[in-house]
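Q: Could you fold this chain for me?
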Amino acid sequence: MAENNTDVSKPVEPTEPAAEEQQNGETGEEQHMENIFQLTVKLPHEPFETQITVSPQEQVQDFRQSIIETPQTFQYSCFHLEHEGKRLQDYSELSEVPDLKADSVLTLVEDPYTEKEARMHVIRVRELIGASGDRTDTLHGVMAGVSLHDTVGLDESGKPKASGDQTALADYDFKAPASVKNLLPPPQEPAPKTVKSISVSPWNPPPYHLRAKGHLLYLTVTTNEGDQYQITSHVGGFYVNKSSNAKFDPMPRQAPRDHAAHSLLTVISSISPSFEASFKELLEYNAKKDLLTIFQLSNAIPANPWQVPAPTSSHLTHQSDLARTQESYLISGMDNTETLRDWNEEFQSTREMPKEAVQDRVFRERLTNKLFADYNEAATRGALLVARGEITPLNPTEAKDAQIFVYNNIFYSFGADGVGTFGTEGGDEAARVAVGKDVVGVRAVNNLDIPGLFTSGTVVVDYLGKRIVGQSIVPGIFKQRDEGEHQIDYGAVEGKEIVAKDESFVPLFEKLSQALRVKRHPVWDKDNVRHELEGSVETKGLIGTDGRRYALDLYRLTPLDVAWIEQYWSEPKEGEEKPNDKNYPHRMSTLRPELVESYGRLKLREYVTNELAKKKDAKEAGSEDKKENEEPAKEESSEPKDKDEAKEEAEKKEDAEQDRVDISGFQFALNPDVFSGQVPQSDEDKEEWAKDEAEVRAACKHLSDVVIPKLIQELKEGDVGFPMDGQSLSTLLHKRGVNIRYLGKIAELADQEDPRLQALKRLLIQDMIVRGFKHFANSKLRNIPPPLASTAAAHLLNCLLGGEVNSKPVAETDAALKSMYSDADFSFEELTPESVKAAVADQVALRYRYALGESWVQPGKQLQLLREVCLKLGLQLESKEYAFTKEAAAAVKPAQAEAPVTNGEAKTSTSSKKKKNKNSPVRAESPAPVLAVQTFHADDILNIVPIVKEAAPKSLLAEEALEAGRMSISQDQKELGQELLLESLSLHEQIYGVLHPEVARVYHALSNLLFNLEDKNAAVELAHKAVIVSERTLGVDHADTLLNYLNLSLFEHANGNTKEALVYVRHALELWKIIYGPDHPDSITTINNAAVMLQSMKQYHESRIWFEASLAICEEVSGKNSINTATLLFQTSQALALDKDMRGAVNKMRESYNIFNSLLGPEDRNTKEAENWLEQLTQSAVSQARQLQDMAKGRLQRVRLTGRTPGGIRPQPSVGQTVSESTSTARPRTNQTRRDQLPIDELVRYIEGDAPKTKTKKRTPNPRRRGQKA
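A: Sure. Below is the predicted structure, expressed as structure tokens.
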């Protein structure tokens, strides 16, 4: 549904990309005007006609969808369109319809229903009128895809928290602990009910003789008035029939009760007098919400919140709805065949679609994205059934890990070494890593989109400790080959003993290798026969029975990290334990593709430097020869001057040519099979192999000696956005090409005096504890039956985080259930906080080579750790403040087993119609068992959701348009740039559908770019959308969501809506506390921005408090004698002066002056400015009269700093983004007046209580001016 609603704000895309338009010399504007026009649609019922705005590039089916979703035409779902009496084909474009132009008239003609159309119509009407109850989806978790955007700043009753003159920040407490109630929307009013129920009748399906007459379905509708109607769905429409619950007569009723219509919606409105009014109320109720917050996600897996409301809350009322159990029949028919799809054929035929024209590419990429979304959902559903043991394996006699399954045309296996393939590489651990890397490899190949090379759809699902791989079935993969034929056509067969080499794969793998910097190299089979391969010997090629060439096992696209393996891995020997310093769990440690790219760029720089040096030497040698030849010539002739000038110009041109280097001769590729058991035979091969090994070692050295130290230095200097949690930390490391196994090494390097690095070290240790716990918890959850998983998870959490509340937590296992599962592993019950701590420390030492020692969960950071653990394991906890300390536990009432829940409400009172004795004594309630005092109980874990890794490719077309727009803007071609950006936005929305993480990123990027192009309203609108889409697809407390809220607050402030901006600032700071805790290094910027916003609202006292808070964090993070601190002291001094605290202002300005003076010297502009202000403020404190005369000389600009400035309002760099990137597109603007930029005399007059006589026209400060380097 979301996909088709992109026209909410969608700019219409031009026929060709705007870049091509410009090359052709067209203006593009005239064409753009033609690209949008209105059509009139004639309707068979009231209001008889409607106007709809379209673009000629839309397909007829998109136009149909617009009709279906327009309020006055909701009733139509089964129809076709005609133009001048000719039927329009659904899949043709409007531009292809002959004679169709602006204001043309189309006719809507109702079609006869088929059984499928009737079922779809019933589903649509149920959803439209709010008759479908809550869905309990087995795949998506509780409140999946929730958004807080519409309720931010509202209290529990739904009213704004800040009222009157009070700002949203009035009662904010910087040091208060994080509150999880900020992660849930306030309780909501139930939606107006339009009917009591719509369901499939017990008389369904129609008997044979009536099916032959066109009967499709029988329905039962109960109206709000309490009347029940039996309705027949017929090919011609819907009518009320004569049946009752006891009698079957599906023929139409007699007049005046003969209600009939083509649409079920019309029939319901005619039988229920209150329907029209209540349906209107429902539409108004839905209109209060942003459309994006209520659309269903169809192209992305919704984010599952880790904190969800209690089952008794108004968000989760469980309603009676008979049709809920009938939905799968309504969706997929009687025999369920409609949902069975041949996934592999769909994937490959989509890949073979034409991609020459832009419109072909849009259609192909859109279809690809939708197909991946459908496949990921279907594969995950199947994986959950496999994990729960609900599918019979194809090989039930094999060991559990070796079992394979087929469900819904998807092949499933476990990410474990069931058949001993990885015996020498690390067994189950190696297999688990390999399938994770395989998904990344498949995604890389999908992104390259090499014609003729195919991959199978691949999804990896982590659920209840198991890793399950779902793959689309490659035709021929299970085929028994003839003798002498190999199962694989290219690469290693049966281990590496045989190597197959079908020549048809060479050109395909050659393209793949070039793109991924993989070197063509020889490998040797068991008979030492040499085979030259493109790609790793582990990467396999298979010719399917459909004739297509498939690439399989893509987990080795980059070389091994030999430095790590040599240091921490040793070959397993039977009967012997590995030594502690060489017991890394597997040998699958490869370098990241980003590192290979980074090393490639380094080699390219070296190549260019060498080439320039060669050219320079050649030039010098050449010029000496020239001089010798020219000397005698000069004596003989006296050439005219203009010839000399021409000669000089020629020399300049030659110099320019000298600076150009042809890089076509540059080659760089790494051999992925070095250090993996290959033995070269000839001397020539040995020599080449040694070179390959040296190159891979150099890349490993580049990682440890250059990349990691540089990253730590940048984080220390504050040159990149500081990570907030494990997710943003891993994103940052992966961007730089650093593997997660280096967390321990980074933590050691970060152990310095610097406060920023100490904060980084704390975050790294927290992430290692979380990851170590995840591995340990998975090992315990793997063999536990699903009904007891929440018990095990609660006990594990108690041992990790609840040790202080109860040092001997008890697992709340149901003894009756336990006795039924004799083969389950209940060893988790014996765990204690000490044993779990030891096990996690062992995991951290094993995987990250870091000794935790005394380091453990930091006091006050338990909530942050709990959040990380829940996100890693897929736990959904009941939202409440969990007690991690004895004091907190004492304040909480002892937990009791919950009262029985009825329809989402805890049952509190009972009433009975058959009360015989009114005066009988009240019966005492049966005593609820009191549970042990511990932090978590089994009932707190409401659900466990799967963690999904998928391989959907990105849209190249949309990315190209975005990049072209950015480049045009950087070259100062604003109009073209803006056109291209809107084109890119339109492409993103068309290809991905609106609700998709990629679209959230493009909304964020575009809102920034448009803001800098002075299109503030569009920037604000996109910033709002970025928030909603990232909340629903990434999570309400994802780091990107937080940054989107900060962005939104800046744009709202710049648009003059400061009060609303402060609401978003507060929400972002509350989220920050939950994600990271208080005092995040980058929060200085945000708090400083809030202070500036308060100042612009003349809330001087409040603004002073926020400047002081920003200063306090800055002193802690940057040290007391830093330029950042001096800048904030300068701003705080001005804030104190505005708050009429002259003595405090003088002291702060003096401190600021002293730091500037000692760090920048007395001649620096900043020092002089601070000195000037200091003089004025000191004088004003002594004698105000004299000051008024002395200071009326002119205006002083606010400090502009070299380096990073926390002053003014500046954008928050996203995690891993450099500060210069976040401000690079900002352009200086004039006429910015802020209170701290006023002429000093006006400021002083304000301090003395006199209003300035001439009011300067105030404009809001520009958010993009913060942090610009001077």
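A (continued): The two ends are 49 Å apart (CA to CA).
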